[in-house]
Amino acid sequence: MAKPITDFAPADASLTPRFAEVATFMRTRSLPMGQAGDVDVGIVGVPFDLGTSYRAGSRHGPASIREQSRALRLINGHTGTAPFEIARIADLGDTPIHPLNFDESLKIITDSFRDLGEKGVRPLALGGDHTISLPILRGLVRNGDVGMVHFDAHSDTSDETRGMKISHSTPFRRAVEEGLLDPRRVIQIGLRGQMYSNDDYGWARDVGMTIITMDDFETRGRAAVIDEARRVVGNAPTYLSFDIDGLDSIYCPGTGVPEPGGFSMRDAMVVFRGLRGIDLIGADICEVAPHLDVGGITSIHAAHLGFELLCLLAEAARSRTK
Predict the structure, then answer these.
(1) Which of 193, 199, 230, 278 is the least buried, fewest Cβ under 10 Å from its Cβ?
(2) Rounded Cα gap, residues 275 and 309, in angstroms
């Protein structure tokens, strides 16, 4: 028999100061990954940045996001969602990483998320560079009929980076080629900035992905983009990936490739809330590099977005249970 939700209640701030004890995400109960059998939603750090082509350091992102999440409270004041009251949530620590071996790290990440998927856990992954989305999908996806809502300044569908077929610029091209994602059920939101060529988005469009550039986002407005995202992914299983550089660089100085002219935090939070009810099987927040940050603002924003995703995942887990 599964353990009751009350067994997974986070630390009570009225009893233990928020600054005390080891930082888990939102001071959630800590469990080893191997004991995740009773967990509905698991927070998992993926401290990997060997796929970064410019400024590294996102291997330290999971720890920094957890530290900044101490300040968060337990109920979403806008939607009323109380994730810890409707789902069994635990911080499962970090996937083991080989700090010098790219291929071995990808295998470890894949195996870790395959184990979680087989246990029925819906993961919230804290990255790490955007390479991690590929091994996460390799681990979670069974039949390939998975859609994705992807927030990013970049499409991440390049064919290669300096001769490498797998990097933080290529994960979603590989995911489609490997049959993990149905490109007709993928929407990319917030793309902008300079390009290497006029065909940077060509492959994504050719295979059927829906692309909403930042100019499109501003022209159409949040409500229309939410409707389009819901139309694209439909009711089938969906993954959500958020590169922190989808935010305007004023909100995320601590990232490898900051891009001006992106989402405000308000934009991102409203769009997340507009996705309530989709069958979210997992999510990630990537590319937080705390050593490049200013006053922890990037990690603070990542933590708040992580809470919004936690609400979506908890509601999806409750819906599936019902």
Answers:
(1) 199
(2) 10
